[in-house]
Amino acid sequence: LGLVRREEDPELTRPGSALGSPAYMSPEQAKDPSGVSSQADVYSLGATLHHALSGQPPFRGKGVGEVIHRVLHMPPEKLPLTVPDPLVRVLDVAMAKDPDRRYPSAREFGSDLGRVLLGYSPKFVTGHSRRKHQIWGFTAVGILVLGSGLTWW
Q1: What is the chain's pLDDT, residue by residue, as a tens digit (153 residues)?
Q2: Helical pair 85-94 and 106-117, crossing angle rounded to 10 deg
């Protein structure tokens, strides 16, 4: 993936510096490498799988700056038409620009990949979908409590 250790650079990591190949780097890692979570790894796994399926990096450009711009602002290169739609959608979630709309961990990503490979529909469990379900649940409970309180009066 383009990581190389050079004699003049014996330490690969430095505080505040990005480490990785720009085409596989999550948008949040490209912006601020100090504040990344496991969701950045999910993004990079998705980008690696994208490359494996298409034969090319998910983002291409004439230089590092152009690649990073595409990572931050553009969708990845199109996958071949031979890639099944459910797998494309799983990769779309894994490589979402917003980490909250991405799989929260490699476990959820792997689970959906397994489901697709076995012919089942993916679940697309993300932080955003969990919060949406929680809000609906709290709203339903609130309505029930209010409704029962009003009938009690």
Answers
A1: 444 545 554 444 445 555 678 999 999 998 888 878 888 999 999 999 999 999 999 999 999 999 999 999 999 999 999 999 999 999 999 999 999 999 999 999 999 999 999 999 999 988 655 544 444 455 544 445 455 555 555
A2: 180
Task: Using alpha carbons, select from 16, 39, 27 the residue that is nearest to residue 69.
Answer: 27
| Residue 27, SS3 per DSSP | helix
Residue type for position 19: L
Separation CA 125–CA 108 (nearest Å) = 7
Count other C-beta atoms under 10 Å from residue 126's C-beta.
22
Predicted model pTM: 0.73
Q: Which two tokens stand for residue 130?
A: 């969990």
DSSP-assigned letter for residue 55: S
Angle at Cα 18 formed by Cα 16 and Cα 21, nearest 5°? Answer: 175
Look up residue 94 and give its two tokens.
Answer: 């894994």
Contact 34, 16 (CB under 8 A): yes
